[in-house]
Design brief:
- The protein is α/β, with parallel strands linked by helices and about 400 residues long.
- It has two domains: about 1-40, no CATH class; about 40-405, Spore Coat Polysaccharide Biosynthesis Protein SpsA, Chain A (Alpha-Beta Complex).
- It is built from 15 helices and 18 strands.
- A seven-stranded mixed beta sheet has the order 4-3-2-9-13-10-18, sandwiched between helices. It has a three-stranded antiparallel beta sheet with strand order 1-11-12.
- Strand 3 (about 145-150), helix 7 and strand 4 (about 175) form a beta-alpha-beta unit.
- Helix 5 (about 75-85) packs across helix 10.
- It starts with a helix and ends in a 5-residue tail after the last helix.
- The chain binds uridine 5'-triphosphate.
- Uridine 5'-triphosphate binds near residues 99, 103, 178, 205 and 234.
Length: about 400
Amino acid sequence: MNHEQAAAKLAEAGQEHVLKYFEELSGEQKEQLLGQIEGTDFSSLAALKDGKHENVRGLITPLEVMQLSQIREREAEFREIGLDAIKKGKVGAVLLAGGMGTRLGSDDPKGMYNIGITKDVYIFQRLIENLMDVVKEAGAFIPLYVMTSDKNHEATVKFLKEHDYFGYQKEYVTFFMQEMAPACDYEGKVYLEEKWKISTSPNGNGGWYSSMYKWGVAQKAMADGVEWLNVFAVDNVLQRIADPCFVGAVIANQCEVGEKVVRKCAPDEKIGVVCLEDGRPSIVEYYELTEELMNARDANGDPAYYFGVILNYLFRVDALEKIREKNLPLHIVEKKIPCLDEEGRKVKPESPNGYKFEQLVLDMIHEMDSCLPFEVERNKEFAPIKNKTGIDSVESARELCKENGIVL
Ligand code: UTP
């Protein structure tokens, strides 16, 4: 793309300011910027202007959850089915580690955060230790696919390599990178992070499967016989990964997806709750939960929307293939976006200064024909680290680790 073509594309998108410093740039920087303009899809910014981003919800009704008492009754059966699938190499695990972790406020990838007290215990290490429990039980390694982003790929790969993958066999670890999306100010103008670079952020965790495919990693997994992918967040340090009982329950119930859920600790807890939307499995985000839904009761008189997702899903790969090219809704998230100020100086904002655009894995649930919400004990399996202190923090996760006999 030459300067003229870039200027035309930017004019159409109302982003002419991107070329503001063009004349000052070196030849290489000019090339880089023109290449980025060519490769950038500015349509999400148009959606912001048109107000088209507001997703209209369908009719919400309750979705039955497989609760702890029901799971206990059939635990042996589920475990056997799950372990059999794992031993046959049919289950892979996908670690979503492409996020920026801005709330935690560390410049390193979140998985590199050390939550240890008396010794080093990194988040990645905790996750791999949990996965190793299943590897030992099954006597088989589980392929681990790690999604990173442009912002943290190098650091993540280097860190895991330096720590010898915390004892995981490296042949079973594959990395792939997610896509990026432009970030903008409140008027929808993209920010520059360098005079030759538009600010970008990872495009959310909803694009994980299409990115895995773009990298050829999904095809390799399918060729290796992987039929199920357990996708999970980097920040839950009590996360059970490829849990045989969960895997077995989803297979036994012939569902396209399973989702681990916990009972909310308060009606307004900030987690998405499971439901049906127009008769299909879905998730209502906490900020979409009306008073009416919060207080609704099911046929047994229990709260109807009381089970929240913890970002641990088991997808059947053939069901993912059906939706690979589908565009998921775009969510607009207010964030702190490093950028250049009016004078072209670099700024690292203290508070949110604009929007980034994200697709979310929870929207994939609505694309599945059948879903098994599977209850787990929250104190044993849910210790997310979003913040340094307070709710869902390093502090609260340390307490929960202690409760579970994990020495930090
Ligand atoms: P969060 O929603 O907590 O987002 O991610 P975040 O970007 O990591 O953190 P904040 O909001 O800036 O503090 C939930 C999970 O999804 C992954 C994260 O790495 C985490 O495992 N994720 C999020 C991605 O892999 N890519 C993304 O673009 C966003």
